[in-house]
């Protein structure tokens, strides 16, 4: 099968994502939290890089995304932006930085944009945070919404199971998606919801809908990079396709290194001064 990889080296913008949806070109998105990985996946041609607050789990080993701070997300955002030429870089606003009122939300969003030089921010939630989103967009900052399973609300749900299977929650999600579009969000992430519901949302809104565990009838897909590269083997939800087994490769490489050091094989004469 011939695959369309990005020969187009122009910077990805929110407007270009909108055009991709209009012409039916799927949007590819992955997470990154550091310069080296961001540079690799940007060079490979990814459209959007998300500096996700999943950094809390993947980089810091926390059980949830809640503990990561604004300053820690700024550190990750800055590191990623330095490694990227083409992809649109979106940074997650962490838990507690936008739920306490519009003024605090816009101040934190401005701080994030000024220091990281990211292209856009992502916030979890619908109508409950619509005033904060409006205020941030009015300040000139593009916002990606996030509905369905919102990991910052995990303590409210008590489970990471599929969201919006019941009609009431599904209807609310549809209303939230329309509200996010109307307030001016440039895209929406839908996490872990039934594929038919995600398809309906993607058809009803004009802005791109990026899914994770939301089926194939949306406008693009996002995965956590460490998961799709097989670095986090304990985590195996149905929606996750692994494209490499880096944990095996890394373990083998480290074992070979240990063996070479212990056996006096490394360094050899050509590997010294
Ligand atoms: O933080 C994150 O990695 C995310 C993705 C799962 C969409 O929000």
CATH superfamily: Phosphoenolpyruvate-binding domains
Overall mean pLDDT score? 97
SSE pattern, N- to C-terminal: HEHEHHEHEHEHHEHEEHH
Number of domains: 1
Placed side by side, the strands forming the largest sheet appear as 1-2-3-4-5-6-7-8
Considering DSSP H and I runs of 4 or more, what fraction of the residues is helical? 40-55%
Q: What kind of sheet is the major sheet? A: 8 strands, parallel, barrel
What would the CATH topology be?
TIM Barrel
Dominant shape: globular
**Beta strand count:** 8
**CATH class descriptor name:** Alpha Beta
Task: Give an account of the 3D structure.
The structure is a single chain. The chain has a single domain, classed as Alpha-Beta Barrel (TIM Barrel). The longest helix is centred in the middle third of the chain and has 17 residues. The protein has 11 helices and 8 strands. It has an 8-stranded parallel β-barrel, surrounded by 7 helices. It has 273 residues and is α/β, with parallel strands linked by helices. The structure holds 3-methyl-2-oxobutanoic acid. The site of 3-methyl-2-oxobutanoic acid has 11 residues, from strand 6.
Summarize it.
This protein is of the alpha/beta class.
Features:
alpha/beta, eight-stranded parallel barrel, binds 3-methyl-2-oxobutanoic acid, globular, TIM Barrel, 273 residues
């Amino acid at each position: 099968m011939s695959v369309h990889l990005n020969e187009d080296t122009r910077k990805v913008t929110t407007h270009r994502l909108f055009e991709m949806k209009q012409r039916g070109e799927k949007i590819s998105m992955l997470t990154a939290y550091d310069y080296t990985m961001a540079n690799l996946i940007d060079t490979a041609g990814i459209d959007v890089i998300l500096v996700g607050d999943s950094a809390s789990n993947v980089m810091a080993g926390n059980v949830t995304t809640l503990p990561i701070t604004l300053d820690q997300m700024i550190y990750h955002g800055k590191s990623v932006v330095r490694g990227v030429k083409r992809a649109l870089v979106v940074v997650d606003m962490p838990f507690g930085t936008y739920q306490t009122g519009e003024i605090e939300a816009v101040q934190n969003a401005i701080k994030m944009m000024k220091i990281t030089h990211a292209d856009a921010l992502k916030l979890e939630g619908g109508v409950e945070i619509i005033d904060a989103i409006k205020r941030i967009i009015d300040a000139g900052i593009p916002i990606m919404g996030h509905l369905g399973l919102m990991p910052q609300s995990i303590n409210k749900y008590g489970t990471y199971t599929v969201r919006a299977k019941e009609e009431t929650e599904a209807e609310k999600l549809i209303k939230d998606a329309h509200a996010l579009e109307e307030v001016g969000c440039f895209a929406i992430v839908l996490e872990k919801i039934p594929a038919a519901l995600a398809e309906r949302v993607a058809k009803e809104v004009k802005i791109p809908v990026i899914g994770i565990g939301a089926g194939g009838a949306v406008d693009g897909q996002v995965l956590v990079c460490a998961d799709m590269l097989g670095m986090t083997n304990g985590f195996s939800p149905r929606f996750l396709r692994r494209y490499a087994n880096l944990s095996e490769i890394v373990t083998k490489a480290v074992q070979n290194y240990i063996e070479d050091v212990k056996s006096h094989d490394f360094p050899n004469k050509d590997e010294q001064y």
